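Exercise 7.
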Amino acid sequence: MYVSEYFKDIANDSRQAAQEAINERTKALENHGLTFDYLAKKLKRELNAKKTITQKVKGSPGNEMPDGYRRIVTTGLIEYVKGEDGPEKEYSDGDSLIQWDETAWDVRQRARIDAHKLRGDYPADKREHTHSITGSLIDDLMAAKEKAHGVK
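Solution. The predicted structure, written as tokens, is:
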């Protein structure tokens, strides 16, 4: 019976040490401004993440670009030709840079997983350990506990 109580004491001591380590890390992060509210705001931004795509195209994309697209620059000789049906059209022998925003699904997916982990929605990782208990192992554990508590 002494051995099972001893293992319970070791388990309690290790839980307490783990909790103390987590508390120390949390205090250190909060001292540097990484509070839970700050992390939640950053997480919310990541859940709405977008990325900007820039592409180089030959010539000029013209004055009429689809919604959400924007021309950054057009190089080379630019010629404006008045069309028969109204607006003038733009032609260039150079290159143009155009940009548009797209949803950053990879960032949003990682942020969603982080949010679920922070909320505790996922089950704890299960780890299985198999050990054969021998006399030397018990002696080593007892020595470690005595050393931790300052008992000789």
